[in-house]
Amino acid sequence: MLRDDVPELLRLTEAIVTYERGSGFRLTEAELLRRGFGPRPEFGAFVADRGDGRLAGMAVHYEIPFMHTLEPLLMMKWLFVDPAHRGGQIGRRLVRRLARHAIETGHRKLCWFVLKDNAPAQAFYRGIGAMPDPDWDRWTTGEAALGALAAEAG
User: Fold this and answer.
1) For residue range 36-89, what is the model confidence (pLDDT) as tens digits?
2) I need a labelling partner for 130 at 20 to 30 A (CA). Which of 2, 124, 144, 154 fits?
3) pTM passes above 0.85
4) Are 44 and 6 in contact (CB under 8 A)?
5) b/e per residue, 92-112, with b = 16+ CB within 10 A?
C-alpha cells in the first residue's frame, strides 16, 4: 500500500463495511494516513491495482504483538475484491501475498473473522486450506452492556 492508494482503500473499506451491514462509518483518508503510515503503523494493506488508478481489491491486516506463546499473531481485518473483479484469482493472490508477509515477519498463523452467513467467503477460505476455529466464537458487548458493566459497584 502506498499513500496514493488511500482514497481507493477508503472506497473499498466502505464497500466491505456496507456489505457486512456495518453502521456508523467514520473512517477518513486522513485517519487512514495517520494510522497506516509513520514510525508505528497500526495496520498494513496489500492491494490489487487495476492499472487505471483504481484498486480491484485489498487485504488489510494488523498485528497482535504477542500471545501466550510470546509470538505475534497476524490478523486479517478485511479481504475485499470489487464485485466486478471477482473470479479472477485476485482474492487468492492477495491472501497469498499476506501469507508470505506473515512468514517473512515471524508469524506462524493468520487469523480472521467471517460473517456466519457469508457462504461465498467461507467456500473461498476453505478452498485455500483454511477452516473455522472449532473452539472459539467471537463475543462482544454493545454500548449499553459496556456502560452498565463499567458502572457496577465493586
Assistant:
1) 998 899 999 999 999 898 999 999 999 998 888 888 899 999 999 999 999 999
2) 2
3) yes
4) no
5) eebbeebbebbeeeebeebeb
